[in-house]
Amino acid sequence: MSGTIIRVESPLAEEAVESLRAGDVVRISGVIYTARDAAHKRIVEALDAGQAPPFELAGQIVYYVGPTPARPGEVIGSAGPTTSYRMDSYTPRLLEAGLKGMIGKGNRSPAAVEAMKRFRAVYFAAVGGAGALISKRIKSSEIIAYEDLGAEAVRRLVVEDFPAIVANDILGGDIFEAGRKKYQRL
Amino acid sequence: MRKIEFQTIVDAAKELCARSASDLPADMERALAAARAREISPAGAEILDALLENARVARDEKRPICQDTGVAVFFIEKGAEAVVAGGTLTDAVNEGVRRGYEEAFLRKSIVRGPLDRVNTKDNTPAVIHLEEVPGDRISIRFMAKGGGCENMSRLAMLTPADGREGVIRFVVGAVDAAGANPCPPIVVGVGMGGTFEVAALLAKKSLFREIGSPNPDSALDSLEREILERINDLGIGPQGMGGAATALAVHVLSHPCHIASLPVAVNIECHAHRSAEVVL
Ligand code: SF4
User: A80: which DSSP letter?
Assistant: First the structure.
């Protein structure tokens, strides 16, 4: 980690996506949308049926999270990332439709990494299991679709200085591969 | 016979769910701090700092440590001289889970069927393992098991010829394949012997042992140390971004088995170890 922190605005501008590299430490501010397994299934079904997704995908960041319920007076409960590979099979379809960023934890499949190169999108890793801490960076939360899915509903979040690391970039850079190579003892 | 009221069990189960969600056990916190002190990767060290801070925030503000508040798993030892008055132990535990998850604002993460995926909306049914022991007490051990780490579990029916090295290879291979997914640093639970299902059960049960404590069996203790070293040589590191702290501990439980068999199960627990115990 270089020590410099890059501020990223969401929705993502083309130039921001192009300039980010695996290993960059970022703080994301702006609007992001939540979706995990069940919501991804529905979004892709909607796209396949020629219907509008619950939010305009172009330039947006999707955060893979299913928060705990908010206590009275709080914006949201604990809200750390969930494991991303479960969304891999849906990812190329969403990127094709214009999605530019994803936040989650863990490695992505070769097909998902390839799709990020092809459609020019980035994947950010947040710290899995730091849900109490991360929730403090979420300033508002509103369910905008699939309310019946409970914790899996699609939410529109406004975040401020949301901490993450670029895990995959548009050139195929991969923090998990690089990090491991550096520290493995054979 | 000693009578224990249904409601006493309900309250105990509820308390275990609610308390453990925001209160990281001291052994896990110590292990994280020790791993932080040893971490060679700057990014890894920062991640471990964030996890330690997360644990403090969660405890101080009574917020869930992690948003995946898990499937409620119980290991219950019921004294042969203890009886539950007013209902079954299973019903009481499930009622406690229902109330604990609701009242403590925990996430309900259970679906009624693996294919239709309809949420039960109260985090039941709990997974309950019941054993009868001598005495008149009921001891309840609880763990909220997250999906991310549980999904990285593996089981193999090895041959006796595979032996110790075969076991080591399988366990290290499971952690290797899991990579960043189970939120490393992790604790690796290993169940060895028994039958197919016993190995899996032992792997989960081993996760209740105090992190950092030696295995009382010296042969198993040396096996644990060797597996731990080989896992941490993988370089996966905190959150899989490279570093020394992939696993904090390896716990092995073993059991007699058939002359033809060598079952081995690996159950992975993440650093967000939500576990607590009560004796009634
Ligand atoms: S693996 Fe553990 S720390 Fe990571 S998201 Fe799941 S429950 Fe939380």
Answer: P
